[in-house]
Design goal:
There is one protein chain. The chain is α+β, with helices and mostly antiparallel strands. It has 19 helices and 22 strands. β1 and β2 form a beta hairpin. α12 (324-335) crosses α13 (339-356). It is elongated and about 85 Å long. The protein starts with 9 loop residues before the first strand and ends in a 5-residue tail after the last strand.
Length: 555
């Protein structure tokens, strides 16, 4: 879907490619710089190599690969229209970011930029809150090309440059006409840029032998291993999850202030590594979170995975999981030490009591101790005909008695408040079904698929679920393509089938008078679907995997 590899990240509103270009000019502006660039060709950087120049106090790093070989893998996906739109959009974005110059990304920057790392640093005391606390590490993969470009731009740049020496390294402070102020230096095969001079000086200290981000704990292993994606195009490593969130909140006045208890929970995450890559199925995101062992109070076992087969191939969206009762119990336990969580728990309890007169702990969450699945299913029958879809829920429980009692109480309450609604029983095969009916037909029905599996479905979907689908979802080509390559031993699935969703979305948007634009439609129709799972590799390693399944190019 993409015909080029972008390097279009913005840092604090600054134009990143233009900054890199200006930094290259500065780096080649002295005899030493000239001799440096005239040396042997450089090489594309890696997350690990770049992190060796980042001081160890960094909170997180993000690495964007500029290797066209990996980005070109996306050419195998998408319609010609979608590929053209994405390529044109990237070119327009690059042109906008370089609008104040005659720089062309493909010709001027791509030949020598070999990967870019953005490191979030703790703000320096002198400039805290005034300048961005980002350190940028740019790999120089071709020094001669960088020199050629720098020489061509020398006479065009409009900026005041002051140079100084710091521990034998030339540091250039650049003040542009538009007020942008930043500092650059060349260290080995990398060009470094920082808006706070102290941050750049700390990076030089690291280059001279001080501890680096790569030397901290298991960071080097995590950076080298990545998240296990093929053909990686981006990688993020967070060494201080709570610290990153704190910085985001402090740097964004409009962001909600987080209570101390929430920050304490965030500190339970020791580190996170995320990777985005391209494989034969599409775009795949993987994330590994290392948890504080003391924060894990229960053992997470994988879901049985059998509930997927209770849904038909016509399912357009599905969420599965298990043990809702345990998650609720854990939330209740945490509420004893957290006023914020307690307020949420109390609100849920009171709302359930006020609306349906039930005990949320015992009569709602207490019996949901098995696997569950909530699906949205295509249907043009009965009361669902006007919508084109309906939903169904399947929940396994070890406490059938309480589940039956809950639905019986709900039935009595409904009949009392909605006199036009009737409740009837009928059999579908050997299953006893209870239906809530309105004059137009069955509104909702529920029953037991087996001794432990309760289902609730809207309108005609009652028959679909009760009769056991002839073509179960887990055997359908769509599910196999979208979720088949995800880990089978997991905590549950999130699944979207775009081919089934798009007709419904198009119908809804057209009826509302706001149809999807041709450009957006071309992109969405290039997706087959989205699949997500979460797993526990061991007691302290939680893994998330997400696949954006893409259709093969029709070229």
């Amino acid at each position: 879907m993409i015909d080029t590899n972008p390097m279009t990240e913005r840092i604090s509103g600054k134009k990143t490619p233009l900054l890199i270009a200006a930094a290259a000019v500065v780096a080649a502006g002295s005899v030493a710089g000239y001799l440096y660039f005239k040396g042997l060709p450089g090489k594309s950087s890696t997350p690990l190599e770049s992190a060796k120049l980042v001081p160890d106090e960094a909170l997180m790093t993000a690495f964007v690969a500029t290797d066209s070989q990996n980005w070109s893998k996306l050419k195998q996906f998408g319609s010609p229209e979608a590929q053209k739109l994405v390529t044109q959009g990237l070119q327009n974005l690059q042109a906008q970011m370089l609008a104040d110059s005659n720089i062309n990304y493909e010709k001027d920057l791509k030949p020598w930029v070999g990967g870019v790392m953005f490191a979030i640093m703790p703000p320096a005391e002198k400039t805290a809150g005034k300048e961005s606390n980002v350190l940028m590490v740019v790999g120089i993969q071709n020094k001669l090309k960088a020199l050629e470009f720098a020489n061509r731009l020398k006479g065009q740049k409009k900026a005041a440059v002051e140079e100084k020496q710091y521990k034998g390294i030339t540091v250039s402070n650049v003040k542009e006409e538009n007020g942008t102020n930043y500092n650059t230096a060349v260290l080995g095969d990398h060009l470094l840029l920082a808006f706070q001079p102290e941050i750049l000086e700390n990076a030089i200290d690291t280059f001279k032998g001080e501890p680096s981000f790569a030397s901290k704990g298991d960071v080097a292993t995590g950076l080298a291993k990545g998240a296990g994606v093929q053909n990686p195009i981006a990688q993020v490593y967070v060494s201080d999850w709570a610290g990153v969130v704190k910085q985001y909140v402090s740097n964004n006045p409009q962001a909600p202030q987080l209570p101390a208890t929430t920050l304490k929970q965030l500190e339970q995450v020791q580190s996170v590594v995320m990777g985005l890559g391209v494989d034969n199925e599409g775009l795949r995101l993987k994330a590994d979170a290392q948890m504080n062992p003391q924060a894990i109070t229960q053992e997470f076992k994988p879901a049985p995975g059998t509930v997927v087969s209770e849904f038909p191939a016509e399912t357009m969206a599905l969420v599965t999981g298990h043990k809702i009762s345990e998650y609720w119990s854990q939330m209740v336990a945490q509420s004893k030490d957290s006023p914020e969580i307690k307020a949420s728990v109390d609100q849920v309890r009171q709302s359930v009591k006020d609306t349906v007169n039930l005990d949320a702990d015992k009569e709602i969450f207490g019996w949901m101790d098995g696997e569950f699945g909530l699906g949205v299913i295509s249907s043009n029958q009965g009361i669902l005909a006007q919508f084109g879809f309906g939903s169904a829920l399947v929940v396994e429980t070890g406490d059938r008695k309480t589940a039956d009692s809950t639905f019986n109480k709900l039935g009595v309450l409904v009949k009392q408040n909605l006199p036009f609604l009737s409740i009837d029983q009928r059999k579908i095969g050997d299953k006893e079904i209870t239906e809530w009916k309105i004059p137009q037909g069955a509104l909702l029905g529920y029953g037991w698929l087996d001794e432990n599996s309760l289902f609730v479905a809207l309108g005609p979907l009652v028959d679909v679920i009760a009769n056991k689908p002839a073509n179960p979802l887990d055997t359908s080509p769509s599910f196999k393509a979208i979720a088949g390559s995800l880990p089978k031993s997991n905590q549950g699935y999130f699944y979207l089938d775009m081919d089934r969703i798009m007709p419904v979305v198009n119908n809804i948007t057209e009826q509302s008078g706001n149809p999807i634009s041709p450009a957006a439609s071309a992109i969405l129709n290039s997706m087959r679907g989205v699949g997500v799972t979460a797993t526990w590799e061991n007691k302290t390693t939680n893994q998330l995997e997400m696949l954006f399944s893409l259709k093969r190019s029709s070229k």
